[in-house]
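During the second half of the funding period, the structural biology subgroup turned its attention to how the target accommodates small molecules. The most pressing case was iron/sulfur cluster, which had performed well in the primary screen but for which no bound structure existed. We therefore specified the complex as follows and requested a full 3D prediction, including the ligand pose.
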Amino acid sequence: MKTLEDNQHRRIDYLRISITDRCNLRCRYCMPEHGIPLLSHNQILTYEEIIKIVKIFVNNGIKKIRITGGEPLVRKNIENLIAKISSIEGVKDLGLTTNGVLLKELSKKIYDAGLNRINISLDSLHPGVFESITRRPYFYKVWDGIMEAIKTGFDPIKINVVVIRGVNDTEIPNFLRLAMDFPLVVRFIEYMPIGENNDWSYEKVMPVKEIKNIIENYVRLEPLQPNEYGGPAQRFAIYPSKGEIGFISPVSEHFCDRCNRLRLTADGKIRTCLFSDDEIDLKPALKDETPEKSLLNLLKQALQRKPPHHNIVPFMIKKCQRFMNSVGG
Ligand code: SAM
Ligand code: SF4
């Protein structure tokens, strides 16, 4: 079986694919309300092009795929893409990250198409705070979507919570309760500097250590083994209750030495690191009569160019130029 290694000898087996830069929310930390240049239809990779890329990458060592966006569920007939990717031999794990707004309608369709792992982003359990973060009054749509995903049978269902000091940090105990009362893995994520136009500042980042201290006032946390395929979350079981929570600390303790991923943007560019603007355009190679060789060459270039680590350190912040909606998180 083929494997891929980058220039730091890290095994690369995970591809995150942003299938659209469009979204039905406007989270303040991700994209501005207006004025963002969106990709046109002919700039966006077609499902056929995505499948072509995935087949070649999987043949050469990628095993895990995640579909993201923008909001992936706004793209038409997403179940067709999921069915195609899940049937590619060599895809061991297929996940999707969504804001949950359209999940009530689509949960069963995407599950039946072959998706079994889903991450849902939810930063507040208060409808008003949810609206002030996302600029849309859709809390109950997301809540209904989460309940529908449980009913459908997704396992695991992970809830991603970006913690922003002064905005939703007082809700940490409520999210702990959510992980104790429902079959949901709640993961707390540090607020990251990305895009030019958000209001990120180092003071607003709540380091994972601090979040963990708050939680340990309520329960005892028992470390769990890292995820298969080396996911970045530190995982914990909750005692004496049931449930699992996780922490993702891209800012305070980066996990770059364990990074196993590449990203594909909706317009066909490989990004070697979430925080770097270095991109490799796959679109010209897709037009070749036999794209296999040229795509493989570009994949190898990406592995060579993958940086050893990002450079987010306090007081020396370099924000990257793309908004998060076009990179996919
Ligand atoms: N629209 C989908 C969603 O929100 O789940 C998928 C795309 S979104 C860009 C992927 C993830 O990135 C979400 O969990 C979101 O919370 C996270 N994210 C976006 N901007 C972020 C930021 N500045 N810091 C930390 N996480 C961020
Ligand atoms: Fe949309 Fe996800 Fe970005 Fe929020 S985080 S604006 S839901 S892409």
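Two results from this model are relevant to the next phase. Residues 23, 29-30, 68-69, 71, 97-99, 121, 160, 162, 189, 191-192, 194, 324-325, 328-329 surround S-adenosylmethionine (ligand 1) (CB under 6 Å). Confidence is low (pLDDT under 50) at residues 314-320.
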